[in-house]
Fold:
Amino acid sequence: MSFIKTPVKGTRDFLPNDMALREYVLKVMKDTYQNFGFLIMGTPALEHIENLTSKQGGENEKLIFKILKRGEKLDLANAKNVDDLVDSGLRYDLTVPLTRFYANNMNNLPSPFRAFQTGFVWRADRPQKGRFREFMQCDLDILGEKTNLAEIELITAVLSFLKKLDFKGFEIKINDRRILLQMILAAGLPLEKADSILISLDKMDKVGIDGVKKELLENGFLEEQVGAYLSLFNNKGSVREFCATFQMAEDVILNLEEIIDTVASISDAKLVFDPTLVRGMSYYTGPIFEIKVDGFEASIGGGGRYDKMVEKYANIAVPAAGFSIGFERLLLLLNERNFIIPEEKKKKAYILTAQNKEVWEKAKAEREAGLIVKIAYRNKNYKFQRESLEKDGYEIIEW
Structure:
């Protein structure tokens, strides 16, 4: 039997330097979010297949790594399709597991519940640069808060975290799913086809308005309705100015204006109302947002309000909003910028030419005092040994 030396396609090994950066970023994130009152929680990598295929994950439900039933439950002979063979799967995001978790534990949690969760997720996607089958997600969520305090706190917490990593030039795109749905109604398009329409609209930045029009027509929508719908995007300006051409509830406009004005007043971020912003998940019910930084075209995080999702598990209405950071994209950016982890602990390297008990005693005391201490015998190629240690930040002491 021959062994394959490379990781499974779409997954990665992490070298010590890679892990050091990952752990540092996670620590900064954890410290920042805890300052905002968020509590760390966790969920399993595996979820019941019924939860993962509940039509809440949009296109991601097509990318689930499904897991076969075991033992007597795996009835290959009588299975009619794949669904008869599976009973669980690897989570494709952290929001679906969070809502299931909250429904199970809400009586033991504070209200509102400020949740911070990190963990790997898996999608059977086609791997490419910046896109993996196994990747880390880092989610902030507030459950039980019906006002826009949730959105404001989520956005400002993420901005605070990114600034600690020396990112600048933030641009936050913001929209509301209720505006998107009202535009569909205003154009006379069928609301029951909203998911299909918004999937096409979500491609606007890639294919332009003509490309969106072509796809909508190919999907069977009438040219008159498609034209009326796309003409609504000709109107520019603020939220209120944009919504002036169709009937939009005043409370929706005011809510979005408050979020934009408040975040702008307490940060130097540029907030942009973008009526073409969709966000891929169909579970969003209100404000949605994405964040970009200078030097990177794609967004590095986003989220929104999903007030109907928890109810499917808990049988009671629970308002909720969340923000997810693109952790892998963030690391890619930091590496491209040659980001250096600030030294928090002093490092010492004791190089021995012979056994010396005193060194171990000294190292023990220094380690207990919080220093990083490495002991090594002197190599034949001492020049390389010394250069490697100095590169890693060690003060070298010869014995």
Observations:
- The longest strand covers residues 113-122.
- The first helix runs from residue 16 to 35.
